[in-house]
Amino acid sequence: MICQLNHHGIFLRKPSLAHTLTFAPPRIRYFRCCLPAHCLKLESSATGSRVSRVVRTEAQDVLFDYLHCTRSLDLTDAEHMSKNSPHFLQKLLSEVENEQDVTRSLSKFLRYNPINEFEPFFESLGLNPSEVSALLPRNLIFLSDDCTMIENYRVLYDYGIARSRIGRMYKEVQAIFRCDFGVLGSKVRAYEELGLSRSTVIKLVSCCPRLLVGGVNSEFVMVLDRLRGLGFENDWIGAYLSGKSSYNWQRMHDTIDFLEKVGYSEEQMSFLFKTYPELLFESSGKKVYVLVGRLLKLGLKMKEVLSLFLQNPKILSKKCARNLWQAVGFLFEIGMEVEDIAGTVLSHVQLLCSYSLKSPETVLKSLKVGRADLCQFFKVDPSALLSLASKSKTNSMEHATFHNASKLFDKTTFLLRLGYVENSDEMLKALKLFRGRGDQLQERFDCLVQAGLDCNVVSNMIKQAPSVLNQTKYVIEKKIDCLRNCLGYPLQSVVAFPSYLCYDMERIDLRFSMYAWLRDKGAAKSNLSLSTILACSDARFVKYFVDVHPEGPAQWERLRKSLP
């Protein structure tokens, strides 16, 4: 079977029957990857010994040559598969007997034993071995045998969706990879026609691949229309979507309806969602209903609950709701009656939401009183008791961190704008990764936005390659100017490969000068991606961009010597 995907630069060939018979040994030896999926059991780790870096690199090179040269996969796809399928590579190495000459032994093995190309392909998309095993198609081993899947994969990748997200999408909704030619692309563009930017559509369909099943999802359109009515821009929704969450658009719409029925005006709802976007995007509004249910269970009437929401919208926030139920649990523990707790919630809800409390046992031990005395103390002066039971730091601790507080606050404020969650592990890691004051980081961020990139797009770029903002504004501007005016690439090309901005100018000038010379000689494809030229090692660059032309090595040396 021959599959032509010429418009993507992919041409995959399946060996003919005659070719297979010519090289078949008397005793046929099957590679385990060629077995049907139900007979295959992937190993979760190496078969025993750990593989050295040298052996692994040699094996990657052999696999790359097999996929690119023998099987005619596109260079970038073959390279990605060979470098991002460690479990498959480990299993491949277990078939080699001569560990002293991995290149020769593995090349010989692949010459007579075709592999199941779906295994390294799926693993390179971020799926783990057990997931790969469950997704392997029956009776197929060559990617060329599934033209429809490859075509739809290319549509998503060319649109800008990361390979790791495409793997998740395939696992969750395989139906979108069975679309006829041109259909999937039209479905993705249909969401752009709703007024969403390309970056927002990428996040949207990555997080919610089921939106690509059938026509444009009517429930999502209803949510988008309601948010527009509240004064939100079309792309506001994109800043709060997360690949780690799933979204129920009907429930989101119902949550907005519920708050409207409670009595919130459009201005109040707009302020509420801007201040606490997690109300909609964490559990798709489910937490609102959970909060209502708990308050009703506590003994409050529906009218009292609605009044409580209307007068104290802060209790809908994640932090305040957590503090409220922690305080309610505290009062239960010290023996307060349910009716008294309900009354306390109605009269002191702001106070209960303001403190994160220690356990009752710790407070009792610290104050050296009994539960009844503590309960009475709360009824007399709830504010004083909650202050004593609070987990907040002492003044001495605040004084010790005073000198660094302003700088840390500036940087923290900047990271919160990027979408990091306050006091999360990701936030703590980011504080260590980003160098410079908050105003400096903001200046570098604004530099990328002013260059013509969407704010949400820049946020995603920075999360992928934090070191971009560790360079000065001048250096960033210089590299963007080089990209546009010297290399001839559009600014959008850095969205798929933000690490371009992290490479030094010497590497960029040298490699692209060699690539331009090679392209003029007709020995290289035009419009190769930035990552293909910059991300590979020096040895690989020389092999595929220098040695491919007889005059290449001489030209390479001239270029190296011409650099200052």
Brief overview, please?
By secondary structure, the protein is an all-alpha fold. 61% of the residues lie in helices and 1% in strands.
Strand order of the largest sheet: 1-2
* Separation of the first and last Cα atoms: 53 Å
Largest β-sheet summary: 2 strands, antiparallel
Q: Report the principal-axis shape.
A: elongated
Tell me the helix content: 55-70%
Mean of residue pLDDT values: 80
**Any low-confidence stretches, pLDDT <50, length ≥5?**
1-48, 393-409
Number of helices: 33
Backbone structural class = mainly alpha
Strand portion: under 5%
Rg (C-alpha, Å): 30 Å
* Total strand segments: 2
Q: What this model shows, in words?
A:
The chain has 564 residues and is mainly alpha-helical. Helix content is 61%, strand content 1%. It contains 33 helices and two strands. It has a two-stranded antiparallel ribbon. Strand 1 and strand 2 form a beta hairpin. Helix 3 crosses helix 6, helix 18 packs antiparallel against helix 19 and helix 24 packs parallel to helix 26. The longest helix is centred in the first third of the chain and has 18 residues. The protein is elongated, with a radius of gyration of 30 Å. The two termini are 53 Å apart. The N terminus is likely disordered.
